[in-house]
Amino acid sequence: MIPVTRNITLDDNEIEETFIRASGPGGQNVNKVSSAVQLRFDVRRSPSLSGPVRERLERLAGHRLTREGVLIITAQRFRTQERNREDALARLIDLIQQAAVAPILRRPTRPTLGSHKRRLEAKGQRSSVKKLRSPPPTE
Known about the structure:
The chain is α+β, with helices and mostly antiparallel strands. The protein has 3 helices and 5 strands, in the order ββββαβαα.
């Protein structure tokens, strides 16, 4: 079991890892060792996620989500397979933690009567300052 939040834990069976050859640094091993990790997590079929968390996770995943609802995270930042596995899992946990936080709904408010009056007074003062800048009328 992988703990994500207090309410969400992922089963090890829900995560599928495949190893591929990484691009980038690796020295002589880069063409011989499959050190990059492709982590797959089926968002739509996961029993660990509730409906709202699932929807937010699908929205957050963006282009990393396939049509079937599988989230694919590719990690190839490090040279070793183990560190790339940890990186991919940490990124998945971070995404799920972000999705677990419900957004705070904004309640529309109106300006107070006092702030409305102060704004109009300030506009009037600014207007009078600008009027005083103009040259006197010629007769």
